[in-house]
Amino acid sequence: MKGPLFYSKILLFGEYGIIKDSKGLSIPYNFFKGALKINDNSEIAKKSNKALKDFAIYLKGLSKNEPELVSFDFESMEQDIEEGMYFDSSIPQGYGVGSSGALVAAIYDKYATDKITVLENLTRNKLLSLKDIFGKMESFFHGKSSGLDPLNSYLSLPILINSKDNIESTSIPSQNLEGKGAVFLLDSGSIGETAPMVQIFMEQMKNDGFRNMLKNQFIKHTDACVEDFVNGNIKSLFGNLKKLSHVVLDNFKPMIPTKFHEVWKQGIESNDYYLKLCGSGGGGYFLGFTEDFEKAKRALKDYKLEVVYNF
Fold first, then answer.
1. How many CB atoms lie within 10 A of CB 95?
2. pTM for the complete prediction?
């Protein structure tokens, strides 16, 4: 058995903000992928198989408590797990590129009964239903999930988040492979844990000043970046990115490992590149945006960079 491939995702804009109804833009990233497989006695496969056993128990509880939300063919699922099924994935965990999202999408695709398929006319209601189902499924891994990562992985389409109840698949300008500009991933070299970062954010949300900053600066600049990116307004995008990068450095320090504070600041001051969080931060990848990738590469020569999109 070898299931279909599910890709990682990158939330270009919207991390933390979408919890409070900012816009967001999420794109599939085909460099990393995963699939359900059987027959491998490696330690990694055994560990994954054990995790799937626990996940199956969780899903049983979910479909019992919310039968109208989702149901699965547990007989097949349990039989496959018994036979050693595991999730074979190149998606790094704790890096903000959706490792659990791809697994959730793969399980839904294979075992959900009465599933919403990618081939249907995906109305807003169907997208919201999928997002809701995936959010409840992925909560097993994160404690709380928006459901966007699995949705992106399942559809393999860019997703525009207008607000909590308004999401749509969208198209983004075609890449210019000859272009000098790029969106890239910067490897921090350490793993970021989602749950503690979200916990810190929720604590900060109790503070009036932080809430005002989120609404009047962070969300404002995030929304502007999403509009610019989708519409291909590159000049305006970089102006807004600079502001967003600044706001993140000033207000999301716990989500940025200390050794990156200076690197972050240098980008803003030199205009060679702007950094932002990729997922919840704390480690994993950061996202970089530059109008001249060669320049950014020289400035960040000590780090591993991976291009995601060319302008």
1. 21
2. 0.88
* % of residues, the chain, pLDDT over 70: 100
If DSSP codes are grouped into helix, strand and coil, which group holds residue 307? strand
36 burial type by CB count under 10 A (0-12 exposed, 13-18 middle, 19+ buried)? buried
Residue type, 185: L
Residue pair 169/120 in contact (Cβ under 8 Å)? The answer is no
**Model confidence over 91-142: pLDDT tens digits?**
988 888 888 999 999 999 999 999 999 888 888 899 999 999 999 999 998 7
pLDDT-derived band of residue 18, with 50, 70 and 90 as boundaries? Answer: confident
Closest CA to 118 of 272, 6, 280, 257: 6
CB 307 within 8 A of CB 274: no
Which domains, and CATH codes, for the chain?
6-169 (3.30.230), 182-310 (3.30.70.890)
Burial string for 58-74 (b: 16+ CB within 10 Å, else e) reads ebeebbeeeeeebbbee
Higher pLDDT pick, 80 / 176: 80
- The 3-state DSSP class for residue 285 equals strand
Res 27: pLDDT: 92
* pLDDT bracket for residue 280 (50, 70, 90): confident
Beta bridge partners of residue 24, listed in sequence order: 161
